[in-house]
Amino acid sequence: MRWPAAGLVLAPGVVQRAGMRRLAAVLSLVISVSTLRADRAEEIAQIHIEAMGGLKRIEALKSLRATGHVATGKKQMRFTMTAARPARVRVETDAGGRTLVQATDGAEPAWEFDTGTWPPKYREMNAATARTFVADAEYDDPLVARESRGYTLDYAGEIMVDGRKLLRVLVTHKLSATFSLLLDEETFVIVKRVEHRESAGGRKVQLVTHYEDYRPVDGVLFPFTITLAVDGKATQQTKISRIEPNPDLTNVVFTRPKAAVPPAQSP
Fold this sequence. Notes:
Layout lengths: L11 H41 L2 H6 L2 E10 L2 E10 L3 E8 L2 E7 L6 E4 L8 E2 L2 H9 L6 H4 L5 E11 L2 E10 L3 E8 L5 E9 L5 E14 L2 E11 L2 E13 L22
Antiparallel strand pairs: 1-2, 1-13, 2-3, 3-4, 4-5, 5-6, 7-8, 8-9, 9-10, 10-11, 11-12, 12-13
């Protein structure tokens, strides 16, 4: 191997050592950049927590009940969602005089039943629906939950969207699923979540969730308008009319009810 600058022929051992030094320098630079990105992501997460109301207020909000309506195409349905930390949620959607109930307790498989069938049959959700439902059930957003829920963060730079500068944080969940959170540079609230998921038909699609109309609930900010776009086309919009902080959960069922056992027959 000829050294271009000096025109000297180097011994193989010298060349190998020089190559190793260059590799070490490159690796050191990569590690330094990765550390800087992780530190910047952590800084953004801390500012986000303060912007949302502060960790003390967030932790004091242990559960909530949201009511509103969901518009899908020309159809509109009313819903009630009850959620509790860390990942319990129950959603009741009313349409056409019948109610679809979907729930998870964060431990057992997600389940559902439709009041259009009576007596009700409490069944497990199909696998694709359950994955999405459980993934969306976590109470705290990833920048709040972070390591406690298996999230790692990496700063991925700034982007301009419609003349608005957004900060991009790459989020990896338990070293597998990866998605991006886009935050407003001025307010540090999350305005978009960008991810890829598998549709019910097995096709990979891009999902972009837009968060708007933030309002305080017991001092913690929540988006009251949430729009879902699939491959660039808006498919669903949720409008929240009210969020009740720390509701009474006495009669809220997150765990799938067990089938009644018929009484034993007397001989």
